Amino acid sequence: MNVPADTVRQVLRPWSHAPALGRPHGTWLYGTDRHGRITSPSRALVRRHRAAFTLTATTVTEDLDHLLKTLHAGGTRFVPAACRPDLSHRLLAARLVDQAVCYAVPAGPSGLGEPVPASWPDGFDVEAVDPTDGWVRITATPSRPDSGAGQ
Question: What is the pTM of this model?
Answer without folding.
Answer: 0.77
